[in-house]
Amino acid sequence: MDDAQPEAASGGSPMPELKSRAGFLRYVAGLVGVYGPLGTLRLVLYELVYGVRFGFETLGMVSGDALAIDRNLQAHARPYLPTPFYFACHAFRHLPADVSDSAFVEMGCGLGRVMLYASEFPFRKLVGIEVSEPLAAAARRNLERFYRKWRRRSPPWQVVCCDAAAFDVPVESTVFYFADPFDDTVMAPVIDNIVATVVNARRRAFVIYVHPAHPEVLTDRGFRLVASEIDMNNRGFSIFTQGGEDDATANLERNR
Questions:
Q1: Which domain CATH number covers 242?
Q2: 235 phi and psi, to 5 degrees?
Q3: pTM: predicted TM-score of the whole model, two decimal places
């Protein structure tokens, strides 16, 4: 765990922790409602395998009203719906083989589910951004529990409770994960910050966008689609990239 990590939030009600068989079945029923019976079949095996590894505490679904955030921010936030491990597993296969020089940043980390999965990769650091204080506190508990259980020391991690649009993106951050956490009003300044900090520093940025509701926010800013597994209901993920010497020069010219 990162030495600079904030303490777990003391305010707000604790998030539900679903450890029972009934809790898992309720989660599967929720998947059926979102992905349909056939779509759920391919997801359940991954949920069981990685649930045993990381724990089942990230299965809770949290409505927008229960996020305990400012009303103005709530208007742009999505309810918390866990990313199926199937999507995370398949999306990460498209990342560069060597990520040891990269920090992983999840915008809207919820209960820490994807950060737990990312901890299996040799990232320099894991950072989760979450505007809901109760969710951020629960994510810290889940990560602490996992690292303690497996006696893990790396990669170091940090969960920051803040508005994603106000977050100062570390220059070493090159892999960004969005599980459709907010609308384009928030998405636009977040991507602007990534371009200004990472791309203009001549580093390549990868954006994994699950259930991509606003891909134009990325493409309008010079990102290119490099991989996609999307069904007819826009369920799945797309991966966008931008960066390197040529893209940095083009961005500087465009902003003059």
A1: 3.40.50.150
A2: -100, 130
A3: 0.84
